[in-house]
Design brief:
Blueprint: H1 2-35, E1 42-44, E2 47-49, H2 52-61, H3 63-76
Antiparallel strand pairs: 1-2
Helix pairs in contact: 1-2, 1-3, 2-3
């Protein structure tokens, strides 16, 4: 029973670490691509996303949408 409780507490922490690690990767990857002259860019209506900071915040706030969007946009650049 104790191991079940520990597992239930460990899963959300592990998911949070995965999200934060992918957010950091998005920030570093988009920054290196921007510095290399090939920014990862998405235009959604009047909004244009290409800054590493904006990508990081978007992934931090709405990871389930922004991270796959980044991967698709990255593959197109």
């Amino acid at each position: 029973m104790v191991s079940s409780i520990m597992l239930n507490a460990f899963v959300p922490i592990l998911l949070l670490l995965v999200v934060l690690a992918t957010d950091l990767w998005v920030y570093l990857d988009s920054g290196s691509r921007l510095a290399g002259g090939e920014p990862v860019t998405v235009t959604l209506g009047p909004f244009r996303v290409e800054s590493p900071t904006v990508w990081f915040v978007a992934c931090l706030v709405l990871w389930i949408v922004a991270f796959p969007l980044y991967l698709v946009a990255r593959g197109q650049s």
